[in-house]
Design brief:
The protein is an alpha/beta fold. Helix 1 packs parallel to helix 4. It has 4 helices and 9 strands; from the N terminus they run βββββαβαβαββα. About 17% of the residues have low confidence.
């Protein structure tokens, strides 16, 4: 999350998904995706995923909107994200630091912090929903993504294609998933049309 008062940043649906529901496994501390249709549990389900950062993707240094003294979300960037989702049928998994106060469990949405609720509302205005989030302590985002993918495999869900929308590298090289990164820039407008085109090309069959 980027404080408005500082504004410093280092510049260095799926159409094919069947009735997804979200449960939390308290023993593992991982948000899992479960299929409501019990008959489908015997089949391998393939999905596409957009692992989504917020700061530097859905906003940038020129974003004027704020929330809780932080830089808010630019609706034009959400529109670009929607283009990716509509064209590919991918689901959204949150990897941003904004995830700390966010929950996928509808029974606990009331306990979310203001930023998380604001995020949900901003995306909902354009028909978008965040399905789940990674768990990684935020600095090891790549490891969190790998862990999420592995946990889905355990319940018969194969993430066959995915992209990462992020404005920083984190540990993506270290865990060998940098090829999936579509790198945006907080200092250069965040998510742009060129990123949308690359994302769609990477996710389409």
């Amino acid at each position: 999350m980027v404080k408005v008062l500082i504004q410093i940043h280092i510049c260095i649906s799926s159409k094919n998904i069947i009735n997804l529901n979200h449960i939390v496994n308290p023993k593992r501390g991982i948000t899992m995706i479960d299929l409501i249709d019990k008959n489908e549990k015997t089949k391998a389900v393939n999905i596409k995923v957009v692992f989504l950062d917020i700061d530097g993707v859905l906003n940038c240094q020129d974003t004027e909107e704020t929330c809780c003294d932080y830089i808010g979300i630019d609706d034009t960037k959400v529109t670009l994200l929607k283009q990716i989702i509509d064209a590919t049928g991918a689901i959204i998994i949150l990897i941003s630091s904004w995830k700390e106060g966010w929950t996928s469990n509808p029974n606990f949405k009331i306990t979310q912090d203001e930023l998380a609720t604001y995020l949900d509302e901003k995306l909902a205005k354009q028909g978008l929903v965040i399905q789940s989030k990674t768990f990684d302590g935020n600095s090891n985002r790549g490891k969190g993504i790998i862990r999420f993918i592995d946990k889905q495999k355990e319940i018969g869900i194969n993430i066959d294609k995915y992209i990462i929308l992020d404005d920083e590298m984190f540990d993506y090289l270290e865990v060998d998933i940098a090829e999936h990164l579509i790198k945006t820039s907080f200092c250069r407008n965040g998510l742009e049309l060129e990123h949308v085109k690359r994302a769609i090309e990477a996710l389409v069959d």
